[in-house]
Specification:
By secondary structure, the chain is an alpha+beta fold. 44% of the residues lie in helices and 15% in strands. The protein has 2 helices and 2 strands. The chain has a two-stranded parallel ribbon. The mean pLDDT is 92.
Length: 68
């Protein structure tokens, strides 16, 4: 939740990796309504940023003790 510049280059790498995992899951013919993205603490921050930067249907988004 710090300024973006303070989290680079790690934030961009992590967001790219999470987006890549989601793309791989969807390419394996998992439908968006069966896709859940969940994170706790730092993972919750990544979940928030991922879904905000990649708007699409998701089956469930869980953000536990984190935020954008």
């Amino acid at each position: 939740m710090a300024p973006t510049a303070a989290n680079e280059p790690y934030l961009s790498r992590a967001l790219t990796r999470v987006a890549s995992i989601i793309d791989d899951i969807l390419a394996a013919e998992v439908t968006p309504e069966h896709l859940s993205v969940i994170g706790f603490s730092q993972g919750a921050c990544l979940t928030s940023e991922t879904v905000l930067r990649n708007p699409r249907p998701y089956g469930f988004i869980g953000v536990l003790s984190g935020g954008a």
